[in-house]
Amino acid sequence: CCLVYTSRQIPQKFIVDCSETSPQCTKPGPLTKRGRQICADPNKKWVQKYISELKLIA
Prior knowledge:
Interleukin_8-like_sf; 1 helix; globular; alpha+beta; single chain; chemotaxis; disulfide bond; three-stranded antiparallel beta sheet
C-alpha cells in the first residue's frame, strides 16, 4: 500500500514497470523505478500516460 504519493513528476525514462496495489489499500498506485517502488497518484495525467505506455509495451 502507498502511504504517500511522490510530490513531483518522475522522468519517464526511470519508470520500468507498474503494478496495482491491493483493493484494501486506501492509496493505490505504485510504479517501479529502477529496482525500487515509488507511489504516484493514479489520477495525475502524467501517471496515466506512463501506465498507458507501459501497457502498450507489455
